[in-house]
Amino acid sequence: LIAQSVEREGVQPDTLTIHADNGPSMASQPLAFMLADLGVTKSHSRPHTSNDNPYSEAQFKTLKYRPDFPERFASLEQARDFCRQFFFWYNEQHRHSGIGLLTPAMVHNGLADTVIDQRAEILDTAYAAHPERFPNGRPRPPALTQNVWINRPDDTP
């Protein structure tokens, strides 16, 4: 899965870091060798420190707090089906506050600037028509965060 994803997305060597827990599959030597061959850096959470990967923790919270999340799944297939639907919604429809109220798909597919520009035009039109509705001045769409880290690199300002 990782090798296919790296190839499909055209990930260049030494540009990707995969952060994982310390589970046996993610800590295995075969995976470490494959990641090294792909030029992918791997990092691991500290043992017994669940908040080392806040993005993953936030996604699990979003999953568990969905109104349609069942108390329990009747079968493995039901759980898989639920997750398929959840990940489609999460990536294609859910607007994330941490990425300018865009969907991950918009950002991944390079549509962020276009969507933000369209939002700015709409806000400018609304402001021009009714400036009294905006006591704080001209509204601006939320900006897209340019850099995100789990652990900030030492050479980053």
Write structural notes for this entry:
Helices cover 44% and strands 6% of the residues. It contains six helices and two strands, in the order H-E-H-E-H-H-H-H.
Largest sheet: 2 strands, parallel
**Terminal residue distance:** 34 Å
Widest sheet, order of strands: 1-2
Percent of sequence in beta strands: 5-15%
Helix content: 40-55%
* Residue windows where pLDDT falls under 50 for at least 5 positions: none
Principal-axes shape call: globular
Tell me the number of helical segments per DSSP (H or I, 4 or more residues long).
Answer: 6
Which sequence of SSEs, written as H and E, runs from N to C? HEHEHHHH
Provide the residue-averaged pLDDT.
Answer: 90
Number of strands: 2
Class of secondary structure makeup: mainly alpha
Radius of gyration: 20 Å
